[in-house]
Amino acid sequence: MSSSSSSSSSPPCPKKMITLKSSDGETFEIEEIAALQSKTLENMIDENCASTPIPLPNVKGKILAKVVEFCTKHAEAGADAETLRAWDAEFVGVEHAIVFDYILAANFLEIPTLLDLACESVAEMIKGKTPDEIRKFFNINNAFSPEEEEDVRRQNQWAFE
Amino acid sequence: MSPASEADNAEESKEGASSLLDLPELALECILEKLPPDGLLSMSGVCTALRDRCRSDYFWDKHMKQKWGRVIGPSAYKVWQLCLASRRDNGDSNQGKQKGLLRLFSLVWPCSWAGEKINIGQDQTCSLPHDSSVMSWYIALETGRFWFPAQVYNRENGHAGFMLSCYDAELSYDFRTDAFRARYPPHGRRAIALETGVTWERLRSPPVDTSPHDLHLSDCLKDLCPGDHVEIQWRRNKEFPYDAVVLEFNQYSAGSRWSRTTIDRRNHREEGNEADGFYGGIRKLRTDDDEISVWKRLWPTELLE
Fold first, then answer.
1. Is the ipTM of this complex over 0.90?
2. B45: which residues sit within 8 A by CB, 6+ positions away?
3. Helix H segments across B175-257?
4. Among candidates B68, B37, B32, which has minimal Cα distance to B52?
5. In principle, which of A61, A108, B158, B297 could form an S-S bond with A26, CB 3.0–4.6 Å?
6. 3-state class (DSSP) for residue A13
7. pLDDT tens, residue by residue, B256-282
8. What is the pLDDT of residues B127-178, one digit of tens each?
9. Which of A60, A103, A143 lies nearest to residue B27, judging by beta carbons?
10. Would the CB atoms of B16 and A97 count as touching at under 8 Å?
11. Which residues does residue B151 pair with via DSSP β-bridges, in sequence order?
12. Do residues B148 and B72 make contact, with C-beta atoms less than 8 angstroms apart?
């Protein structure tokens, strides 16, 4: 599946619009070309299920709006890589809870470019942090058993001297 | 996944996947894949679920290959396996630690140079490997605790007697300088030598899977054609018969007695003796990777006599 903006060999109707419906009832219109970046939507379009609004019970309106924005941007013709990269960086420059929502949506809708971008952004949040800082940042409870705790401590000692 | 929240406000959201661990497997894997080794290590200390995932060989295989792939080969792997076996034999106790390392040393290098009085004072404080995961191996390499067999070009950096050479050595990484310490086995009358500051481009994993003490079988002689590049393997101890071929050493000037020699393909015998080593195992260089270009880079700038 291509996420580039060049047209495929058998182009869909120009400016054909698909309607998507979020879990909280909001509807959004997206160009078919842009929608093709989602494998899930592409399959539906191929099977001709795309005439009525497509319900997406796993995606909130707030997030679906952004996903539509992302796909539309990435389907644009003639976008240069540099500009797109900058745009992407801004797109994921949000708090991690929202990035997680992007990940869930990209996973459900099977949009590899968005998934990759969002995961990369989470990886950046992790880099350079100690285990403790990671726990605090992502609000994870340290659920080690005493043996595991000891094991981790020994391992860190051995690795970091 | 918990249902979408009604209140869509800006406070810290507790709905959806605000927890990293609630993310789909594929996504979590994708994130972990993008982490550098120290990031992975930190993550493995966060909680049980992450610890198990982050120790997986799947992630560490990639890091091993990326950073160490060029210098770590089958020989190093064998040594590592011996390390692990020795650790298992000695049990997990701290008392076994010191004894274990000494015993390991004689296991792996069962020849005269292991018996030499090597100062392994510093090594005695290093613990043996943690477990058999690739992660442990990676850490052992990064911290310099694991000395691995490899070959060093232009040993002792430009020493006249060793130009255009590649010597077997044991190496230990120094992450502070991103370079290596090299230990060379005793050679003729030279004792064990230690060199520091050996850079990455001077290293390669041993191309031949024999110990430095077994002669190299020149199995490529039938395939040698004019213009092929070869390197001579310097080994000790046994003798093998081969066929005839003329070797030209272009780094020497035409008149030099070192520039040409004939080898009888059928009855080639290594010259030399026990003390100084035998000279003559031939190995044809592979054209498909960098081997030839690496040697060419080391070519002396003036012709040698």
1. no
2. A131, A152, A155, A156, B51
3. none
4. B32
5. A61
6. coil
7. 555 556 655 444 555 555 555 555 556
8. 444 578 899 899 989 988 899 988 888 766 655 555 567 778 899 999 899 9
9. A103
10. yes
11. B168, B204
12. yes
B39/A143 touch (CB, cutoff 8 Å), yes or no = no
Residue B154's identity, in one-letter code, is: N
DSSP B64: I
Structural contact between residues B154 and B204, judged by C-beta atoms closer than 8 angstroms: no
Give the global pTM.
Answer: 0.69
In chain B, what is the straight-line distance between the N-terminal and C-terminal CA atoms, in Å? Answer: 77
For residue B251, give every residue at least 6 positions away whose Cβ sits within 8 Å of its Cβ, in sequence order, or none: B164, B299, B300, B303, B304
Q: Report residue B36 as tokens.
A: 């550098």
d(CA A58, CA A107): 10
Count chain A–chain B contacts defined by CB atoms under 8 A.
Answer: 109
Classify each residue of A89-126 as buried b or exposed e, where b means 16 or more C-beta atoms within 10 Å of its C-beta.
eebbeeebbbbbbbbbbbbbbbbebbbebbbbbbbebb
Degrees (nearest 5) of the Cα angle B165, B169, B172?
130
For B144, which residue in chain A has the nearest alpha carbon?
A: A159
Q: What is the C-alpha separation between B189 and B175, in angstroms, rounded?
A: 33
CB-based contacts of B178, cutoff 8 Å, min separation 6: B200
Which residues, at least 6 apart from B295, have a Cβ–Cβ distance to it below 8 Å? B164, B229, B231, B285
* Residue B48 Cα to chain centre, angstroms: 33
Helix (H, G, I), strand (E, B) or coil at A103: helix
**Helices B37-44 & A131-138 angle (0-180, nearest 10):** 70
